[in-house]
């Protein structure tokens, strides 16, 4: 049984073991308690001497929370309080650097910032890692935690504990990190911090006196968060006398400087000019620069064990900086760190260039983006209708959308995305087939390759344990929704008199697309959801085609449970009818299993006259409109003689909200 501070946890809390951070396995060798005079701002802007921070004056921590509970806002305040950034109204989610993060107001990629903080006459080095809150990005959270010894668990004073609060707490707890509960948004009219304190005590077994109540927005009581970081989070357990051993816990690709690795030093030190080796590739590099992220890269020439920073060493190829890799000094090999369990993709989709001449550009964009996001898996794929492309694996639908948006925004790539599918399995029925496929059980990530029933002894579908946290008044409706999604109830726990936590075993394909959306609308936005992998179960699966005037739409081929075929087919046809523009002729939309049509809708004929509003004989204006229409057509996907705007399929598939 897991315990926290010697206390036993609620029985349901004894979760499956997740990855432990390498730090927690090392023995502490702390340096004697030297103090140092604080850096002046001028010194900081120059090159700070990182040797002035003994291990005991370092704290590495992460901020974890449910979506929107205020992680990034708290990070802004901490950056301001420590003078890392100026106090201005413009500082909003400073660490959310990606365009997609700013547009959607969500954190997608974990970010690191080094803060210098003076407390009781000492200057401390604090490394803060801001993490994403959405379930799709929990892999980023696990990785970030590997470079930390403690976390700030932020909980909204009005919303209280939510599904991702629970999931993130256990990631931190199982990694044996110190947890500081921070109740945020106490300025809200409906804030009830005392109720949230009680929830934290009940669910996480953390005494309410340990909770810090703040308003990150107004800055109220934020200073006591920094003090708690120093007092309650232990310094890293590392040894500076040993030769260098650095963990690459993240990496980004810069067009001009190549790979920038985020590293946590577990042993020794690294300097500019050192020759280092990657334990993964065994390639040797010269260190071009090392430094801290403050929050932008600030060269320091040296980094010491216990510190977190960046390293640039002329790694140009996307495969050279593996996340989880260990770096060591040339001629001083060390035992590599355990690395990370690779992220398991939950959703697969085909990605094709709109125009095949764009194939190479798209290939290079995908390669570069996957370096920044190693949780995406890439398989080459091709289709008769769509040409050469890839089948990519994502952690969830939001992850897929964000990846697509980043391809467009950061690399100007326009792509066709096919229906997301979960990784099904098929157990083959005969020795001959097993010989042909070279395995007994095949994984199907492309519905077009779904094997026929005659070849299969049984189909298997992935399942997850889902956690729903909801106000009690919605329990009945939510239970009905879960049942309709073929879920089996496992547990029900009252967090307090008004809030309940439900645990269900769900088939993954029932929740990836629109479960979250339905849950939110059923509960007026109050219920939250999180899930984790729970293996496979047998299922009656069939392949369903969608046809437009008799032509199969490759983007929409899906695998469905037999029970659900009619409902799913009907819904897709209806949605397609709403998102397809009318054309000069009638369009028949059909859902079919083999040759049997199970649902049908019709789009009536219509002609769009772009010149309708052009009175008189302004020929240049007419030409302009016709040219614009022709340009628009280049972006259309043609199936038979039907022209379909690129986003029509996405509209059909996309039912999950942005958050
Ligand atoms: N009233 C009030 N609003 C706050 C406070 N802290 C954050 N917010 C608001 O809550 C919203 C979400 O804040 P973020 O800091 O983006 O939340 P987050 O947890 O980083 O969100 P993700 O990165 O998407 O997981 C924003 O609109 C903030 O302005 C607070 O103390 N009081």
TrEMBL record:
<feature type="binding site">
    <location>
        <begin position="184"/>
        <end position="187"/>
    </location>
    <ligand>
        <name>GTP</name>
    </ligand>
</feature>
<dbReference type="InterPro" id="IPR009000">
    <property type="entry name" value="Transl_B-barrel_sf"/>
</dbReference>
<dbReference type="InterPro" id="IPR027417">
    <property type="entry name" value="P-loop_NTPase"/>
</dbReference>
<dbReference type="Pfam" id="PF03144">
    <property type="entry name" value="GTP_EFTU_D2"/>
</dbReference>
<dbReference type="InterPro" id="IPR006297">
    <property type="entry name" value="EF-4"/>
</dbReference>
<keyword id="KW-0472">Membrane</keyword>
<dbReference type="Pfam" id="PF06421">
    <property type="entry name" value="LepA_C"/>
</dbReference>
<dbReference type="InterPro" id="IPR000795">
    <property type="entry name" value="T_Tr_GTP-bd_dom"/>
</dbReference>
<dbReference type="InterPro" id="IPR031157">
    <property type="entry name" value="G_TR_CS"/>
</dbReference>
<protein>
    <submittedName>
        <fullName>Translation factor GUF1, mitochondrial isoform X1</fullName>
    </submittedName>
</protein>
<feature type="binding site">
    <location>
        <begin position="65"/>
        <end position="72"/>
    </location>
    <ligand>
        <name>GTP</name>
    </ligand>
</feature>
<keyword id="KW-0648">Protein biosynthesis</keyword>
<dbReference type="InterPro" id="IPR013842">
    <property type="entry name" value="LepA_CTD"/>
</dbReference>
<keyword id="KW-0547">Nucleotide-binding</keyword>
<dbReference type="InterPro" id="IPR000640">
    <property type="entry name" value="EFG_V-like"/>
</dbReference>
<feature type="domain" description="Tr-type G">
    <location>
        <begin position="56"/>
        <end position="237"/>
    </location>
</feature>
<comment type="similarity">
    <text>Belongs to the GTP-binding elongation factor family. LepA subfamily.</text>
</comment>
<keyword id="KW-0999">Mitochondrion inner membrane</keyword>
<dbReference type="Pfam" id="PF00009">
    <property type="entry name" value="GTP_EFTU"/>
</dbReference>
<keyword id="KW-0378">Hydrolase</keyword>
<dbReference type="InterPro" id="IPR038363">
    <property type="entry name" value="LepA_C_sf"/>
</dbReference>
<feature type="binding site">
    <location>
        <begin position="130"/>
        <end position="134"/>
    </location>
    <ligand>
        <name>GTP</name>
    </ligand>
</feature>
<dbReference type="InterPro" id="IPR035654">
    <property type="entry name" value="LepA_IV"/>
</dbReference>
<dbReference type="InterPro" id="IPR035647">
    <property type="entry name" value="EFG_III/V"/>
</dbReference>
<dbReference type="InterPro" id="IPR005225">
    <property type="entry name" value="Small_GTP-bd"/>
</dbReference>
<dbReference type="InterPro" id="IPR004161">
    <property type="entry name" value="EFTu-like_2"/>
</dbReference>
<comment type="function">
    <text>Promotes mitochondrial protein synthesis. May act as a fidelity factor of the translation reaction, by catalyzing a one-codon backward translocation of tRNAs on improperly translocated ribosomes. Binds to mitochondrial ribosomes in a GTP-dependent manner.</text>
</comment>
<keyword id="KW-0342">GTP-binding</keyword>
<comment type="similarity">
    <text>Belongs to the TRAFAC class translation factor GTPase superfamily. Classic translation factor GTPase family. LepA subfamily.</text>
</comment>
<dbReference type="Pfam" id="PF00679">
    <property type="entry name" value="EFG_C"/>
</dbReference>
<keyword id="KW-0496">Mitochondrion</keyword>
